[in-house]
Amino acid sequence: MELAGAVLSVVAVLAPAIKGWLDSVAYRNRLLARAEVIRARRGDAGRGEAGRG
After folding, report:
1. Measured between alpha carbons, how far is residue 29 from residues 8, 13, 14, 20, 34 in Å?
2. Going by C-beta distance under 8 Å and a sequence separation of 6 or more, which residues neighbour residue 48?
3. Does the pLDDT value for residue 14 go beyond 50?
4. Where is 1: in which H helix or E strand?
5. DSSP result, 4-53
6. CA spacing 20 to 30 A to 36: which of 1, 13, 17, 28?
7. 18-23: which pairs have CB atoms within 8 A and are 24 or more residues apart?
8. Do residues 48 and 36 lie in contact, with contact meaning Cβ atoms separated by under 8 Å?
9. Is the pLDDT of residue 53 over 50?
10. Other beta carbons within 10 Å of 36
């Protein structure tokens, strides 16, 4: 039981940081998807992630 309590304590302490990180990743993914839609509408679909070095 002590191990379970320790694990729960660590998870409780790290939960806000992990949530913030996941929110940040989700926000970046939404922006990338929005940019992809804009490029597709302009006809610049060939300039996606593959064009980067």
Report:
1. 30, 26, 23, 14, 9
2. 36, 39
3. yes
4. none
5. HHHHHHHHHHHHHHHHHHHHHHHHHHHHHHHHHHHHHHHT-GGGSGGG--
6. 17
7. none
8. yes
9. no
10. 13
Distance CA 45, CA 30 (A): 17
Confidence at residue 45, expressed as pLDDT on a 0 to 100 scale: 55
Q: Which structure tokens are listed for 32?
A: 């990338």
Mean pLDDT of 25-50: 85
How far apart are alpha carbons 23 and 26 in whole angstroms?
A: 5
By CB atoms closer than 10 A (0-12, 13-18, 19+), residue 39 is: middle
Question: Which tokens go with 28?
Answer: 């970046």
